[in-house]
Write a structure and sequence with these properties.
It is a single chain. About 85% of the residues lie in helices and about 0% in strands. With about 325 residues, it is mostly helical. α3 crosses α4, α3 packs across α12 and α11 runs antiparallel to α12. It starts with a helix and ends with a helix.
Length: about 325
């Protein structure tokens, strides 16, 4: 095998999803604790702001309800969309923090709010609201406008609501189906733009449309590699989540009246909760890791091609000079 083939072979091996996953697992031993901390801070901010927006929204709904349900509904929807916008801007800050972790750059909690200081990040956050609204309109609105939901909305007591849902399992099944449909639609619409946030941070000179086209081009020849990389990177924690969830469900169903069984079930629930936090923090870190691996190699190849073009032009100029 000649030297060029050996270099290409090493490059292919380095970029295989199993090799990438191993490299990520080695790197995550140092980076993951910081990523988990940042994700927990992000989640805490999101929960607090969600409660704040929801509280203000309910208060406004009560104030404007006397003027007509339509006006009250408009104000409530506008407020909730404002919360989604803020959450998306915070999401940019979370991606930015993880990317800087990978690049061994300093990170502070204030980086979570970096998107609010950048006009470009706010533009992309506003754009991302559209797929969310579309998914909501296709998956949730048909249920929310049905006679079933109208009947549920008239139940004001939590205990009465639980009794109604337990006696009408088809309602729970319908709500679960449409919630999953909403999640899958939103995922399908957002997935092609997975690498938009790192590109927004890196490509500071590019325009709005070019960032989106770069995000789509980034997938070329890398979809299955990314999928395999993510599976190999997170399959263990995924199995833990499913195993704990299944064990908790089984114990509650078979030994619901046993106090010791309830304690064991609570333990499984706690482990599942911790594993879920680990999973989401690790997924965000791994997305940035995958991006940085290929973005750096792409820049190296682009730099080499620019140098080759410059050398080729220099050779052509020298040949022209010699003929003259």
């Amino acid at each position: 095998m000649d030297e060029k083939s050996l270099v290409n072979f090493d490059e292919k091996k380095r970029k295989s999803f199993t090799a990438l996953a191993k490299k990520y697992r080695d790197a995550s031993k140092l980076l993951l604790p910081r990523a988990i901390f940042m994700f927990m801070v992000f989640t805490a901010i999101l929960v607090f702001s969600s409660s704040l927006f929801m509280g203000v929204g309910i208060s406004l709904f009560a104030v404007f309800a006397s003027s007509g349900n339509f006006l009250a509904t408009i104000f409530f929807i506008a407020l909730e969309l404002s919360f989604v916008f803020c959450a998306l801007v915070l999401h940019y800050g979370l991606f930015l923090s993880n990317l800087r972790f990978i690049r061994n750059q300093p990170v502070a909690i204030s980086f979570l709010f970096a998107g609010f200081r950048q006009r470009r990040a706010k533009k992309f956050a506003a754009f991302f609201i559209a797929p969310l609204v579309l998914s909501f309109a296709l998956a949730i609105v048909p249920v929310a406008t049905s006679a079933m939901f109208e009947e549920i909305s008239q139940i004001t007591q939590p205990q009465a609501l639980l009794e109604y849902l337990s006696s009408h399992p088809q309602v729970m099944q319908t709500m679960f189906f449409h919630s999953m449909l909403f999640f899958l639609l939103a995922l399908a619409l957002y997935f092609p733009f997975t690498f938009v946030w790192p590109l927004v941070y890196d490509e500071t000179q590019n325009y709005f449309s070019k960032i989106f086209s770069q995000s789509l081009r980034f997938w070329k020849g890398r979809f299955w590699k990314f999928l395999g990389f993510e599976i190999m990177s997170h399959y263990k924690v995924t199995l833990v989540i499913f195993a704990c969830g299944a064990s908790e469900f089984f114990i509650l169903k078979k030994f619901s009246s046993n106090v010791a069984a309830q304690m064991v079930s609570s333990l499984f629930g706690f482990v599942s909760f911790c594993a879920t936090i680990l999973f989401f923090a690790s997924v965000i870190l791994s997305i940035n890791f995958f991006y940085d691996e290929f973005a750096s190699s792409q820049k190296e190849s682009d730099g080499e091609s620019v140098e080759q073009e410059a050398e080729q032009k220099q050779d052509e100029n020298s040949q022209d000079e010699s003929t003259n």
